[in-house]
Here is the input.
Amino acid sequence: MTEKTSRRSVLLGMTALGAVGVVGRVFSEAENTRDTSVVGEAVKTKKAWDAIIVGAGVFGAWTATHLQRQGKRVLLVDASGPAHVRASSGGETRMIRSAYGPDAIYSEMSASSLEEWKHLSEGAGLPLFHETGVLFFFQEMVDYAKATIDVHQKLEMPLEVLDRSALDARYPQVDFGGVAFGLYEPEFGVLMARRSVQYLVAQFIKAGGAYRQEKASLPQAGGHTVMVGGASESADAIVYACGPWLPKLFPELVGERLFVTRQEVAFVAPPTDTDAFLPGQLPGWADFNNGNLFYGFPDIEGRGFKIAHDKHGEHFDPDMGNRRIEEDSFDTLRSYMAMRFPQLADQPFVGERVCQYTNSSNGDFLMDKHPSFDSVYLLGAGSGHGFKHGPEIGRMAAGMVIMNTGAPIKRFSLASKETSHNRAVV
Here is the structure.
């Protein structure tokens, strides 16, 4: 490989899941047009791209995909690769659920996104979605649970309300002591996070999109140009979907409006003499626990029983932060398992992961124009629940770019983001 090819590399071969072969795209640096040896007749344009997407996580990948579906010429860029090890979109699994209390918009977005995820999974060599169902259980009828039931009824979305006796009968491996009832979503479940994003990017490239693993600069030339791996690239629109790196890239704009926090996840070896912790026997679950929420998954694809304490941790640096779980966190998880999953109380931990949430002040997403550049867009603030919504976020973001508008709804606007962290969306 020549120095020039390496510096301006496009992904010439990628076999995400071993399921697809990816057709590479090569571009002429001299004319800034498409190379005719790959795509046929070159077409000169004022700008090489309709859009450049910086960040190949779930938000950026789906935005690129939706723009591509609309016939746009898209360059997708990431410094470390799609869903890489430090990315919020990395890791094995993410929950997809429709229970959001009174926030019906997120229930609707989840339902729409689920259809996209299922369609994507159908073409993959390995599953991207496991329909395990999702169980959310409560100690009493709190406002959040009542609103969830009401929203599901209004939207005509499947939801089972299980009383304590039904919970005990259906899931004997769980000790429901203190629990009054549960809400079960039969059509939802678990997404394979890293695998899904890498496969999506592979499909984007196969369909003719361009991807480069390079660093991208801040916007230049009035917001239409970025430096990608040291080379200048121009576009009608530039979207920064950089997850926890957004506050680092734009500190004056969002440094005090986005809160990057440390999040810990652990995996436990289930007992070998029972199938009680496998999919089909145990759904994805979340224990409201009087507001001190824990959640997890059954043993998906042999990775182990997943468990996490859903609290916002301390401020976290995605580049240099320590990605080992603290010992007292293991103690907290083991104490919880002794209470709720007694068969797992003495089982060994077999894995751990520290990632990060990029939180807005209240948990709503950020999807808006940069106030200083009419052609630059900011996309982020997944706030710990964004992955599942990737398809819908990408669709909305693509709409912003195509229509040259700002935030699709007020609660996603930059102006709505406060400087104090007060989580409201759960």
